[in-house]
Write a structure and sequence with these properties.
The protein has three helices and twelve strands. By secondary structure, the chain is mostly beta strands. The two termini are 36 Å apart.
Length: 224
């Protein structure tokens, strides 16, 4: 059983919206102005650093930065990229860190509503909020009526996975999927292109389960 790594709702004594988003030496007046522009959220995102990628929880966001709970502690000054469920991306650096909580300062001011996918404009189907996908290589076994077949994972999210295998199942085929290090799950083929197929899980993976599994995978260089 995976032990939960989610933060407690009031784990910090200064957990009001935007409080820990800012450098600690800001004046009270400046902090109040920044708070007014801060949106409190609890949204799953993706962090990409120079040596790995991981899931995170975005706790609040403003035009200048975000407060996140990461799967590991981050170092002050560490460069990273934050990817949101809307598909939007913001690059920046860690301004402060306390345990697994950190304040990220974006390189450029952003439209927080656009990043969160809550703007007024109507979004097309391919732009609807989606669970963050992580580029991971891992072994898997896919089973259906025709037998068991080895496969390789190329990316994975809480709701599905992209795999490649020599004998690929047809679209709409229901399969059993066993990924190295994760519980077996039922899935359905939703697209196929050559030997690659996209599977949607019958039951979403828990944030903790996927997040900790990803952290155990070999690190990859993703940012220069």
């Amino acid at each position: 059983m995976v032990k939960s790594i989610l933060p407690e709702p009031h784990e910090s004594g200064n957990d009001r919206p935007g409080a820990n988003l800012l450098p600690h030496d800001m004046s009270g007046r400046s902090e109040r102005r920044a708070d007014a522009r801060t949106t409190t959220v609890l949204q799953i995102g993706k962090l990409v650093t120079g040596r790995q990628q991981m899931l995170c929880l975005v706790r609040n966001i403003s035009t200048g930065g975000a407060k996140v709970y990461a799967m590991r502690s981050l170092a002050v000054g560490e460069r990273l990229r934050v990817e949101f469920r809307s598909g939007a991306i913001a690059e920046g650096a860690v301004m402060w860190a306390e345990g697994n909580m950190a304040g990220i300062r974006f390189d450029h001011a952003i439209d927080a509503a656009r990043l969160l996918g809550t703007g007024d404009g109507k979004m097309s189907d391919d732009k609807l909020p989606r669970n963050p996908s992580l580029d991971i290589r891992a072994d898997a076994v896919v089973e259906w009526e025709e037998g068991k077949f080895p496969a390789e994972i190329f990316n994975i999210s809480q709701t599905g996975v992209c795999i490649e295998l020599e004998h690929a199942p047809l679209v709409h085929q229901s399969v059993s999927l066993k990924i190295e290090g994760l519980p077996s799950t039922l899935a359905r083929v939703v697209w196929k292109k050559g030997n690659r197929v996209g599977l949607v899980f019958s039951q979403s993976l828990a944030y903790d389960t996927l997040g900790l599994w990803v952290m155990d995978r070999p690190a990859r260089t993703l940012l220069g």
